[in-house]
Fold these 2 entries.
Entry 1:
Amino acid sequence: MSAPTLIAPAADTAPPRRRGRGRAAGVTGAFWLFVGPFLVGLVIFVYIPIVWSLVLSFSRAQNTVTPGDWIGLQNYLDLLRPGPFLDSLITFTIFAAFIVPLTFALSLGLALLLNGVRIMRAFFRSVYFLPTACSYVVASLVWKLSIFNGVRFGLANTILGWFGVDNIAWLATTSPPWYWLVIVTVRLWLQIGFYMILFLAGLQRISPELYEAAAVDGAKNAWQTFRYITFPQLRATSVAVLLLLLINAYQAFDEFFNLLGNSSFARPPLVYLYYTAQGNQDFGHGTAGAVILALLIMIVTLAQGRIFGFGKAE
Amino acid sequence: MSAPTPTLAESGPETRPETQRRKRRRMTAGGVVVAVLRYLALIASAVLFLLPFYLIVRNALALDTDITAPGWQLFPKQLQWENFTELFTDPSVNIAQALLNSAIIAVLQTAGMLLLCSMAGYGLARIPYRWATPIFYAILVTLMIPPAVTFIPSFIIVSQLHWVDTYQGIIVPVLFSGFTTFLFRQYFLNFPRSLEEAARVDGLGYFGAFWRVVVPNSGAFFAAIAVITFIASWNAFLWPLVIGQDSSMWTVQVALSTFLTAQTINLHELFLAAAVSILPLVLVFVFLQRYLVQGVAETGIKG
C-alpha cells in the first residue's frame, strides 16, 4: 500500500532514442517483453474484478456473480442504514482508536530504548522482531487457548488467581468488554516489532551533528532533545507509520475471525463482508460494501497526504 | 566530585572545551543509572515478547492434563516428544498436507512475484517506451486500493475461471502486486547505469543486460523482497480461506484456524501444530534476518 504522492517524478527514464525504425521497434518489443506479462495479470486480476464488482454492486446478486437484475443504489442504501455494516465501521473506529496510538507509542519507545544502547542491541532487536514470524492465526490460538483462556488454567486467570481474583471469561463477556483487551494485545504483540524497525531506520538517518548542535544550544535533558530534534526529524517515518497502521487496522480480519468469529458485538468491516459474501452468498451487498470500504480508504489516504504533506519531506 | 572552576566559568568561548568536558563527565555518572534502567526495560519487554513462544512450546510438549492442571507448571514434568507422532498420524488432522500446500504456495508465489514484478519494474525504470509513463500511473492507481478489501471481486474472477480449490486460484491473483513492482522500479532507477552500458557495449540487449548484469548484482534487494513475500505468503489467511475451501487445499493457517474454531482436536496437538507451522519462518528469521530487516526498513518506509 502506498500513496501515489510519494512517488518521484516518473519522467526520469532516459529520453527516447529513436535511431531509425529498427531501434524503436526493439524498444517497444523489449518493453512489452518486460512489462507485458505483469500488465496482463494486472488487468485480469485487479482491473476487471474492480469494474465487475462496481457493476455488480448495482444489481441484486444473491447466489450469483452475474450482473443484470438492476436495482440502482439499493445495495448501498441498505448498507448505510443503521445496521450491521455501520456497526462494523464503529467497531473499526474503536479498534483504531486503541491500536494506532498504542502501537505508535510503544514501537517508537522501544526503538528509542534500543537506539540508546550498544551491548546486546542486535539480540534485543531480534527478540522484538520475532513475533513478525507468527501468523495472526497462531497468535490468536495462543491468546484464546492459553493466555486469555476463560477457564482457570489460562495464564491471565492463573496470575489473577494468585491475587484472589475470580476467573474472567475474557472473550465471552460483553460487560465489561474484556475482548478488546485480547484483540488489541494480540495485534500489539504481532506488529510492534515491525514498526520498531521502521523507527530504528528513521532514527539512524538523523545526523549526529544535530544532537551536538542541540547540546551546544542548551538542550537540557533527554525530553528536550526528543521534543526538538528526534521527533521532528522522524516526521516522514511517523506519517508513514500512522498511515500504515490505520490502513492495516482497517483491514483487520484474521484475529477477529479467529477470536470472536461472527459475533455481533465486535465485527469489523471485512469480517462482516466475509459472512455476507461467503456465508450468505449475497454478492450484491458484498461488492457494494467493498466499494464503500475502498472509497473510505482512498479518502483517508488522500486526506492524510493533504494534512501532512505526505512525501514532500522526502 | 571535582571542584568547579568558577573563575573561568563566566568568561568567553575559550571555556567551552572545559564546560563540555564537565558535562560529559556528569552524563556518564548519571549515565550508569540510565543504562541500568534501559536494560531493565529492555529485558522486561523481551520477556513479554517471548512469553507466547514459551507457551507454544510448553503446551506442544505436554499432555492435556498437564495443560489444564491447577497451578502453573513452568514446563510439563515429562516432555512429550511422542506428540509429534500423534500429530502426524492423526487421520482427522492432515497437517502434513496443509504444510505441503503452504510450502508450494509460498515458494511459487515468491518466485512468481519476483519474476513478474522485477521485470516489470525494470522495464518501467529503464526502457524508454512512449507509453511507459501512463502505464506506470495506471499501476500506481491500484496501490490506492488495498488487496484485502477487494477479496470479493477477486473471488468472483477466480470463480469464473473455475479456479476455486486450486493452487493457481490461491497463487496467481496475488502475484500482480503494484507495490512490489513500484519498489523494484525505484530500486532499478538507482542501479548504476554504467554497469548496464558496459553490457550494452558487449552486445547484450535489455533482456541480456537484465539477466546477466542487473539481476546478479542485485542479490541483496531480491533477497529482501523474497523474504518479505515468503513470510506474507506463508502467513496469509483471508485469501487462502476464501479460495481453498476443500480440506485438501487448506494451507496450514486455514487448517489451524479450523481446528481452533471447531475445537475438534486436543490442546497439545493444536499447539504442536502451531509450533510446526512457525518453525520454517523462525528459521528464515534466524538465517536471513539481515535481508528481512533491510526489506522491512525499505518497503515499510516507502509504503
Entry 2:
Amino acid sequence: MNPPAIVVNDLSKRYGNAHGVLALDRVSLSIPGGTVFGLMGPNGAGKTTLIKVLTGISDITSGSASVAGFDVRKESLKVRARIGWVAAEVILEDDFSTWENLWLQARLQDLKDWEGRAEHLLRYFGLLDRKDDKVSHYSTGMRKKLEIALALLHQPTVIFMDEPTIGLDVATRRMLWDIVTGIHKEFGVTVLLTTHYIEEADALCDRIAIIDRGRIVAEGSPSELKARVRSDMVQLETSENLDAATLAQIPGVTEVRAQGNDWIIQVGASEEFLPQLFARVHPNQIRRISVEKPSLETVFLQLTGHRIAEEEPMQDIRKFYAQMRRARA
Amino acid sequence: MRSQLWGLYVREVLRTFRNPFVVLVTLVQPFMWLAFFGSSFVNLASASGKFGEGTYFAFLLPGTLSTSMLSVGMFGSMSTIQDKRFGFMKRILITPTSKETIFLSKAFGSATRGLVQIPVMVAAAYVFGVSFPLSPLDWAAWVLALLLLAIGFSSLFLAITAPSTDWQTPGVVSNFITMPLMFASAALFPSSSFPSWMQAISNVNPITFSAALGRSFLLGTSVDWFNLLYLSVFAVLMVVIGYIVSARWLKVE
C-alpha cells in the first residue's frame, strides 16, 4: 500500500466557544496515497468540516493532521501548494474566459510554465476549442469540468471533492463519476471525496469512512464494509397490526423493529425467510415488501441506527441555495 | 506573493471594467457632480468671494476628485463580501495565497477604479470652463496625491468590513463614513466658514489635504508639499492597519 497522503490523529473541531457545536469528535484516519477515498455520511455529519480543516480554511480545536506530508497547522502554505479543491457548487470567475480562469489559477498557485499543462487539461476535458469563451456561457457539466481542470493545474498530490455531484442531474453526475475515475488513473492524484450518495461512494471509492455526528464509525473498502453486514434487511408494510413475536419467531430473524405498521426485519437470508413469512402472515395482510441485500446503506443503517436519506430535506435546501447563487451570478 | 497579487489585482480591475453599467456610471457621474452640484452653487460662490481666483468649478474639481477617492473604498469591500458569499474567497485561500495579499489586491483594485475617474472628471471640468495650467510634474504630484488618498480610504473600508459577510455592511459603513468626511473637509467649501468643531475635523481630514494640493496646482497658488507628505503617511498607516486586520480577521465565508 502507498504511504499515506492524509493522516488525521485524534482531531476535534468545535465551532464557537467551549459550548459550541462539536463538528468533529476525535477523528483519526490514514488515507493511502493514490486512492479514491470516500467520506460518507448525512449532511451535518462533519464531512465538509473535515475538508475545511484539512485545507486550512478552519482551525483545528485539538489533535493534528497532515496532508502530503506537511502539518496542516504549521505548514499551511506548503499544504495549500499541494492540494486541489472541487466545491459542491461550481465557483468560477464568470466574467473571465476559460483561459483567463486558468491564468488566474496559475497566478494564485505561483506557477511559471503552466500553459502546456493547461492545454493538456483542456484537451483532456474536451474544452480546448472553447478556451476563449466566457465561462458564464458554459453548461453545468462544462463548468464542473473546468473547475476540476483548475484543481489539477498545479499537479496537486491530493484533490478534495466536497459533494461534487450535489444538485447535478443524473447524466452529469455519471459524467463526473467517469471524470473522477479518469483523473485518478491519468494524473495519479489521491482523491478525498465527500458524499451522502451511497451509490456514488460504492462506485468510485477504493476505501470509505462512514462519518456520523462528527465521528468515524467505520472504515474499509466497500466490500469489507458490506461484509460486516451478514444479513438481509426486509422492509414490510402491513395492513393491520402484527404481533412482533410472530415475526421474531421465524427462523433466521435476528432483529425486528416496528414503527406502526412498518417493519424492518433483519434476517440471515431473505430467500429462506420469505416462504416462512408467507406461511405465518396471510398475503392480504401485506401491503408492500422489499428486500435489501447487504449494501453501504444497510451498513450505515446498522452502524448508526438511521438512514443517510433521512437527511434529504437538507440536501434540497443546499440545492436551492446553489441554484440561487448560480442564478444571481 | 507578487504573482498572486498581480493575478488578483487584474481580476479586480477586469471585473470592474467588464461591467458596462460600472463603466457608464464611472463616465457619467463626474459630469453629474459638476453639472448639478457645481451649477447650483456657482452663482452663490461667486457672490461670496471666498473661493479665490477662477470659477467655482476650478475650486470644486480637486474637492470632488478627492471625495470620489473616498467612495471607491466601498467597492473594494463590496467585492470582498461578494467573494465570501459566492465561495471565491475559499477558492483563493485553498491556494498558497495569504489574506494580506487579498487585502492588498482589493485596495489597489479600488484605487485603480478611482484613478480612472480622474481623466473623465478633468474632461468634464474642461467642458465647464476650467483651465489647466499644470506642468507634467504638477500632474504627477496631483495624481499621486489622489492615488494615496484612494489607497488610504480603500484600506480603511476593507479593514472595517473584513470580518463581515453581510451584503449590507459596505453600504452602511460607507454612509456612516462618507458624509462626515465629505462635509467636514474643504472639498466642497472653504473650511474657514465652518464652525470651530468642524474646522478641527477638517484640519486632520485627508480629503482637505488632497483638495488643497489640487487647488494649489489648478489656481496657481503656492504649493505646500506637506499636503503630499500627510497623504503619504495616511496611506501607509491605513495600509498597515488594513494589512494587520485582514491577516487576523478576514473571514473566509
